[in-house]
Amino acid sequence: MTDQATDDDLAHRQRVDALLRQGKNVYQPLYNYPYPQAFAALRPCADRCRAVEASMGGAVAGRRLWDMGCSLGYNTLWFVDRGMTGTGIDIDPRNVALCREISRWTPGEARFKQGELSREMVEAMKPGSHDYGFLFSMLHHVIETRGLAYVQAMMQALTARIPVLYVELALRSEVPPPGYDWARHLPEDELAIFATCEGLSFQLIGRFPTHVGPVTRPIYRVSRGREN
Ligand SMILES: C[S@@+](CC[C@H](N)C(=O)[O-])C[C@H]1O[C@@H](n2cnc3c(N)ncnc32)[C@H](O)[C@@H]1O
Fold it and tell me: Which residues does UniProt assign to the signal peptide (predicted)?
């Protein structure tokens, strides 16, 4: 039994290390992973999770989370560890494979799947199927590839389906790392992605450092009506 457990564990660690080696980068720490992480993360996540959790005012356990662009699953798993059920989605199959590997270290209900954020995906979502949506540092990629008008229409559909969103938004004033070109596609006002939505409340919950440069990124809580 012990030998079997050790073999499984070794194979798991080897798979994790191989996956970490494969990708473009290691954006997040591996949540609850009990072994040394072979490659350091580009940025921490606990700072953002703590601020988001504080803004939820205790409405955490039993809530349903949709985490789009979930990377290595840290933010999803942090909240699953605190009693949410979580669905993490990422375009990168390597990220999804890593999320599935490391989710064994966090009790609770976390599901990870591969997917590309699109208007069709959002429109297919049943209204009320999630309590919170996270879109952290991923919408600038979508603005770059699909344009602002597309993202605005998508945010209209998304805010009609999920009552509270948390968005971390890259800013036009940032200088992207070599090989990236998203900044010049971004609007002057980062909240312009919600310009065609009506009846939303915005609460700035903090500004957070990134690996990209000295500019900190805001996280907003976006909710319908006055339900902050
Ligand atoms: C800069 S990382 C941010 C990761 C995480 N949300 C965070 O802030 O810690 C962007 C993530 O979004 C994913 N991504 C980029 N474009 C996407 C898209 N169109 N649909 C789904 N995921 C996407 C990337 O693979 C990557 O994991």
Answer: none
